[in-house]
Write a structure and sequence with these properties.
Blueprint: E1 2-4, H1 6-12, E2 18-22, H2 29-44, E3 48-53, E4 71-72, H3 77-85, E5 89-93, H4 103-110, E6 115-120, E7 130-133, H5 140-150, H6 159-172, H7 183-194, H8 199-207, H9 212-223, E8 226-228, E9 233-238, H10 240-245, H11 257-261, E10 268-275, E11 280-287, H12 293-300, E12 304-305, E13 309-314, H13 318-328, H14 333-338
Parallel strand pairs: 2-3, 2-5, 3-4, 5-6, 6-7, 9-10
Antiparallel strand pairs: 1-7, 8-9, 10-11, 11-13, 12-13
The chain binds guanosine-5'-monophosphate (5GP) and manganese (II) ion (MN).
Length: 342
């Protein structure tokens, strides 16, 4: 755990400040939940916060309280730049390195004259002035809760903050089932329910909001599933043509990789998705046990993340990317065989 400059930050925040809060590109439940929770908290503390979102995020998290106050850096660029230029400090949430916001926004942030404060649970964090980094914590939302707790402000958590935090903890822990879910996580969740998070409604909003096409796309993904039993590995591919056929919308492939990991005996799963906009194959990796997909992705696919959930990319074609992946597996045979023996 790294906690750097916390007392100084507290003093800095004694006065009302213009604060910009940013999550990573392609925001997920944890990025949106944590930035919006911090937004509501800073509002209550008398600051003037603005959440700037790098790009589009899935429909199933649009309902989060405060979502309508955010600026999108890609298509509300002048408002976003203005908020950044007028800010006294920028909070970086749920990401560890400036390049994770995407190229244009990274350029803007690199010229930023004031200080950054990071609250994040990813490995290998960049060094910024104020830091709260803990790779052991399941979600940035739990860290925001603990940040509020360190400020002795738990009483300020209202139903909106509780709802945002609950959502990110729920999505980043696979509904409280991953290894990162601790007794502290459950205590935080219990407190959030007491403070007004409607757990049934949140699960319903996030997980039972599928379109028919999304289910058909899932069907396609499952029929593309390949299993490599000798490496305890399974992978899924989705091409642009398949995405188009089922009217792909942002977020439609979220969680699909977990179906590959749900196969008995599988400890390593990947999904390869063609991304026509960026002309890359975007990859999600998941694992069970000791096999670190963070390391695997950093070493071979220009990515990173956590030990059991990471992302990466490839500039090769889909076929070449899959061949590269399959060719790498023999090197990891032993690790994959023993991954879940603990
Ligand atoms: P997902 O597979 O759900 O997109 O991401 C899994 C985890 O890996 C998330 O914590 C996400 O922030 C991180 N991640 C996804 N893509 C990348 C990437 O290209 N680079 C790095 N460093 N992390 C990533
Ligand atoms: Mn997260």
């Amino acid at each position: 755990m790294i906690l750097k400059g916390f007392e100084e930050l507290k003093t800095f925040l004694d006065k009302p400040r213009n604060i910009v809060i940013i999550g990573h590109r392609n925001p997920d439940g944890d990025a949106m939940g944590s930035t919006l929770a911090l937004y509501h908290y800073f509002n209550k503390k008398g600051h003037n916060p603005t959440v700037v979102v790098p790009n589009e995020y899935p429909e199933f998290i649009h309902w989060l309280p405060g979502s309508d106050t955010t600026y999108r850096f890609d298509w509300q660029n002048s408002q976003s730049q203005k908020a950044i230029n007028n800010s006294d400090i920028i909070f970086l949430l749920d990401f560890n390195a400036l390049h994770r916001v995407g190229f244009d926004m990274q350029n803007t942030l690199e010229k930023y004259p004031n200080d950054f404060a990071m609250i994040d649970h990813h490995q290998q964090p960049d060094d910024v002035k104020y830091m709260y980094s803990d790779v052991e914590i399941c979600s940035t939302c739990q860290m925001v809760y603990q940040f509020i707790e360190m400020n002795n402000d738990l009483d300020l958590i209202d139903a909106d903050i509780a709802t945002c935090l609950y959502t990110g903890i729920m999505t980043d822990t696979g509904s409280f089932r991953f290894r990162s879910t601790t007794s502290k996580t459950h205590r935080v969740i219990a407190d959030l329910i007491d403070k007004g998070a409607k757990n049934d409604k949140i699960h319903n909003n996030v997980y039972d909001a599928n379109s028919y096409n999304r289910l058909l796309l899932l069907g396609q993904a499952l029929s593309n599933l390949q299993i490599l039993p000798s490496y305890n590995t399974a992978y899924i591919t989705l091409t642009n043509e398949e995405k188009k056929r089922f009217d792909f919308q942002k977020g439609d492939t979220e969680g699909v990789v977990n179906y590959a990991l749900s196969l008995k005996g599988i400890v390593f799963a990947a999904i390869f998705i063609e991304d026509a906009d960026q002309n890359i194959v975007k990859i999600s990796f998941r694992s069970k046990g000791n096999f670190s997909v963070n390391k695997f992705s950093r070493n071979h696919f220009e990515g990173g993340g956590h030990d059991n959930a990471a992302g990466g990319k490839s500039d090769l074609s889909m076929a070449e990317t899959v061949t590269k992946f399959v060719t790498l597996l023999p090197e990891y045979k032993k690790d994959l065989e023993t991954s879940y023996e603990n």
